[in-house]
Design goal:
The complex is a heterodimer of chains A (about 260) and B (about 325).
Chain A lengths: L1 H19 L1 H28 L2 E2 L2 E2 H21 L5 H7 L2 H6 L5 H9 L6 H17 L7 H29 L6 H11 L9 H10 L7 H7 L6 H28 L6
Antiparallel strand pairs in A: 1-2
Helix pairs in contact in A: 2-3, 3-7, 3-8, 3-11, 8-9, 8-12, 11-12
Chain B lengths: L1 E16 L3 H10 L2 E16 L3 E6 L5 H8 L7 E6 L8 H4 L3 E5 L11 H11 L4 H15 L14 H12 L6 E5 L7 H18 L2 E5 L3 H7 L2 E6 L2 E7 H8 L4 E6 L5 H7 L5 E6 L4 E6 L5 H12 L2 E7 L3 H11 L3
Parallel strand pairs in B: 3-7, 3-8, 5-6, 6-7
Antiparallel strand pairs in B: 1-2, 1-4, 8-9, 10-12, 10-13, 11-12
Classes of the chains: A mainly alpha (about 260), B alpha/beta (about 325).
Protein name (chain B): ABC-2 type transport system ATP-binding protein
Pfam families (chain B): ABC_tran
Organism (chain B): Mesobacillus foraminis
């Protein structure tokens, strides 16, 4: 309960600051939007000539992309820990975090949130409605609830992976370039995994389970029954990866060496 | 009750030493040479509630490492710490509720938002009730004279203004124990004095324990009765500041200016047999005699010098704490 109160306190503070810099906010939303449009155009161009890709139609792939945008938007709003190493370890900002009576990871999430990324949720849902309409998909009464569960599962998969990578900084001093690479790999999850070879598919399912952010949960809404098993595994994978990452984080904090003055 | 209990506290860091040359760099890839460096070497001490303790030492002596272990930021390699009845690292979130921390080189406040917004957020973080906050902070804000700064964003404050706000922020939950790491670094004299007065006041009013590290020994002289001195991870002195002075003061420094031209050799001759060392500042023609430990020597040196030359001015200087401490470090040991 205390954490919920604090969460909204930070959100309120964040909005206040953001509204002071209105121009900034608009530019950021605009560039976010532009990025998504470019991605969509890319998909349209690629599928302009082929109707099907390994049995997936163009609309289905657009639908998966739309779904992917939702957990991705939530992830990028709240888990901006890609610069954790520089900001918190090298500069020693974690010192300050650790002198406050809130869990350290939660504080970093609060400090680094970027709520304008939430706009991606709207884009994502709009794309899904468009593609779903083309495909003639209906909405049953429990679909919205399942949607929320699957989206949250996807968010936790993403968050878990990135928190674990951030944790490397507790053990290794050197900076790594894993973070940007991981953002790239993350994008593979939004295409149907059966277009890749077996090895990549295995990695995207069990090692870096980005497929659980896009194609697997989306397959449920597309009525692709052969994937349902994976679809319903989404919240489980999310819980496992996120749980593991929090455990690693707590262990890592014990090993934090601090930055010299 | 002791606010801080530290027993055989030790913190080791692994330090990698790289080999030289390209060949060495390749070998480093496979087997790294590292040695274990103790930053804090089995130290023990206690601090009573309400004490103001100065924690001093050169850069790298282990001050910050100790403070970070006491505040729960770092986990000790071995040894026992009990602060406010808790183990700082194990019960971190409950523990930090009972301490206030000011790191001079690091801001506790949010850069972009107004000072009062930072205070308000911290008030929520520390679960301070409105009544307690108003009662306590009104006084803090008035004493530190930060009322006019409250609606300004932190990035627009000067260093002195920011430090006063930092101090206020550390006290929002009125903690019984306050850690100050270099709180007056880079501040002008007036702000320093204001901060010192304020610290004295809260110490008297709330019996707040204060542990202070600083390079500015005048801070320590103004505030602390007790000092703990650290060198290479070991405590080399723990006791009253006054007895440190008495114990380590090595005689006095007497400065002479003469009406006539004086010779260094002649002065040495005059005071031969006494424990004294003469020095000459050529530019100002000031002669300095450094006397030994022995109590008599001051009057002896003056008596004999005055007998030999006509004196224009005599000054007797007591060595400053700074000099004493420099002395101790130069000789490496207590």
């Amino acid at each position: 309960m205390f954490y919920v109160t604090i969460f909204f306190q930070y959100v309120a503070q964040y909005m206040k600051t953001r509204l002071e810099y209105r121009a900034d906010l608009l530019v950021e939303i605009f560039s976010d939007l532009l990025f998504q449009v470019v991605n969509l155009i890319f998909i349209l161009v690629v599928f302009g000539h082929t109707e099907f890709l390994n049995g997936w139609s163009r609309e289905e792939i657009i639908f998966i992309y739309g779904f992917f945008l939702v957990p991705y938007a939530l992830f990028s709003s709240f888990f901006n820990i890609w610069d954790f190493n520089e900001r918190y370890i090298v500069k020693g900002e974690l010192d300050r975090i650790l002198t406050r009576p809130i869990h350290s990871l939660f504080q970093i999430i609060l400090e680094r949130m970027e709520l304008e990324s939430l706009f991606g949720v709207v884009t994502g849902i709009a794309i899904m409605f468009y593609a779903g309409g083309e495909l003639g998909l209906g909405i049953r009464w429990f679909d919205p609830f399942l949607f929320i569960v699957l989206v949250l599962g996807g968010v936790f998969v993403y968050a878990g992976i990135f928190i674990m990578i951030a944790c490397i900084s507790f053990w290794a001093d050197a900076r790594t370039s894993i973070m940007p690479m991981m953002y790239n790999i993350g994008n593979y999850g939004r295409y149907p995994v059966d277009i890749y070879n077996q090895a990549i598919r295995f990695v995207l399912t069990w090692i870096l389970p980005f497929a659980f952010v896009g194609v697997y949960p989306a397959a449920y809404f597309l009525g692709r029954e052969e994937w349902f098993g994976y679809s319903f595994l989404t919240p489980v994978i999310g819980a496992v990866f996120f749980g593991l990452s929090v455990f690693l984080w707590n262990e890592g904090v014990k090993r934090y060496r601090g930055a010299g003055n | 009750m002791d606010a801080i209990q530290v027993q055989d506290l030790r913190k080791e860091f692994k330090a990698y030493s790289s080999r030289s040359g390209l060949k060495g760099a390749f070998r480093d890839l496979f087997t790294r040479n590292y040695k274990i460096v103790p930053a804090v070497n089995d130290i023990s001490f206690q601090v009573k509630q309400g004490e103001m303790v100065g924690y001093i030492g050169e850069n790298g002596a282990g001050k910050s490492t100790t403070i970070k272990m006491l505040t729960g930021i770092l986990t000790p390699t071995s040894g026992k710490i009990i602060v406010n009845g808790m183990n700082p690292h194990k019960e971190r979130e409950r523990f930090v509720q009972t301490i206030g921390v000011v790191f001079g080189q690091r801001s506790q406040l949010w850069w972009d938002i107004a000072v009062q917004e930072s205070f308000r957020l911290l008030k929520k973080v520390y679960k301070v009730s409105d009544a307690d906050y108003n009662d306590h902070m009104d006084h803090v804000i008035k004493t530190l004279d930060i009322e006019p700064l409250l609606d300004k964003p932190v990035r627009k404050l000067s260093l002195g203004q920011r430090m006063r706000c930092e101090l206020a922020a550390a006290l929002i939950h009125n903690p019984p124990l306050l850690f100050l790491d270099e709180p007056t670094i880079g501040l002008d004299v007036l702000v320093k004095l204001k901060i010192r007065d304020f610290l004295k006041e809260i110490n008297e009013k709330y019996n707040t324990t204060i542990l202070l590290t600083t390079h500015d020994l005048t801070d320590i002289e103004a505030l602390c009765e007790r000092v703990i001195m650290l060198d290479e991870g070991n405590i080399i002195y723990d006791g009253a500041l006054k007895s440190l002075k008495e114990h380590w003061a090595e005689g006095k420094e007497i400065q002479f200016e003469f009406l006539e031209r004086a010779e260094l050799s002649r002065l040495e001759e005059l005071t031969s047999g006494l424990q004294v060392k003469w020095d000459l500042d050529e530019k100002n023609q000031v002669f300095t005699a450094l006397t030994g430990d022995d109590e008599e020597s001051v009057s002896q040196v003056i008596a004999r010098t005055v007998a030999g030359y006509k004196v224009k001015d005599v000054k007797i200087n007591e060595p400053s704490t700074e000099e004493i401490i420099r002395n101790i470090y130069e000789r490496g040991m207590a």
